[in-house]
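[audit] Reproducing an earlier prediction to check determinism. Same input, same settings, fresh worker. If the tokens differ from the archived copy the diff job will pick it up downstream; this log only records the rerun itself.
[audit] input (492 residues):
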Amino acid sequence: MGNAEKYSAIATLIANIQYPQTQLENAWQGLLLNQFHDILPGTSISDVFDDADRTWTEVREVCDRLLPYGIQENTNLQAWNFLNWQRSQLVKKPDGSFCWLANIPSFGFTEIESVEISETNDPLSIISDSEKFYIENRYLKVEIDLKTGAIAQVFDKRSQKAILQSPSTLQFFEDKGEYWDAWNIDPNYESKKLESTTLESVEISSNRSLQVSVRTVQKFRNSAFIQEIQLSAFEPFITVKNWVDWQEEYTLVKVAFPVNWRSPYATYEIPMGTIQRSTLGETPEAKAKWEVPAQYWADISSENVVSPQEKQHSLGLAVLNDSKYGYDAKPGCLRLTLLRSPNWPSPHSDRGHHEFTYRLVPHQGDWREANIVQLAQELNNLIVLQHSPIPNLPIPIKQQSFLQVSAPNIILSAFKRSQDHSGWVIRFYEAHGKETETEIEISLDLLQAENVWECDLMEIKNTLLTIVKGASNHLQVIFKPYEIKTFFWLHK
């Protein structure tokens, strides 16, 4: 939804077409309606879910219409990046082939023929013996157990350290007995652990020069789990794609990541910020938080237990998600909640087909040094491919960055028409919890700024700011820790 809004703003400013305000407002209202407190967590009756599915479909259709809004058909395939930093990504092209797109411009586009790599000599391999598959790139060596299908070990080649203390496995628990069934996880679920999955198959599913992967099929009672464990040539993380046919009741599923260190804290992303929580459960308050929410990621790092002189040698593991927001942590283990199956208020809750992805990012130093915020944003905001350059650019170009920010911890969260239609609203937040001075640069091809104000979230203008104009519009600003800043741009 946010990408459709950003694209609509770019198309309107560049091509001088009508901004689709009504379509966007209707889509946002549908999205927000579905974030009502009983729809969002899945605590409604079946009729409500049917209505919500129809609303989601309508929102998706609006986004699909708006992403190529105001463009002209063209034979050159473009890659669009709606994040405010240059990035690279492995993508699947419309013809089914894979390519690596290197250095896609910040908040902009490139014709993929300018940046695509279809083959590489970078080390990437997949081999096996009688016990394990081994997949390896320049950063990581990953072991997959042939008897269980579990990730048995992750070896970080940069630090020369093993990350896991024991295999990462799916864990099943009876989750029954709470009066508010769909709302509450049984606080005593850990004493009711169920059997593990049965492995039906494990095989190589991809062995390309850019990506290797192993696919496992596991059964648990009446349910099936397909997992694809992927490693690409240029990326320092492991991606696990999941397809689940879920047919259980009163069952909780988690995936566990036991790490080779103990930490008294874990860090979780919250909207436009982070929160650090104890893993020790020493106080009544901490004990009551046997399950906690996180937005796109959670992280457990040994930097919390080493001296300041050793912090650069500390290890961490971040677990990123694209749609699963419940975590728990102990001093030596981080877990992500994948599925539940309550019977009230709906006996059909969560049953059926699920698709989701999580990503394991081993790192040195803390989550800030490892750019975990950016990596999680990239998982949740994939590169958009389309045959669709915006017309009326001043010169024919193969790539363009419309917006750049000098500090990596300043994240673009919105680029939209103002609610009163008189200007453009651009919103950022500081993601690392530290005061940061940064330069925001916006292309003159996009905005010919007359005036810029800092405003509040209601878009009420407060402070007139100074713009330095050269080849681009330049704005120098200071963010306080975790501060949200909104700017109102008056376009000439």
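[audit] rerun output stored. Observation attached for the diff report: The domain at 125-380 is CATH 2.70.98.30 (Beta-galactosidase; Chain A, domain 5).
[audit] end
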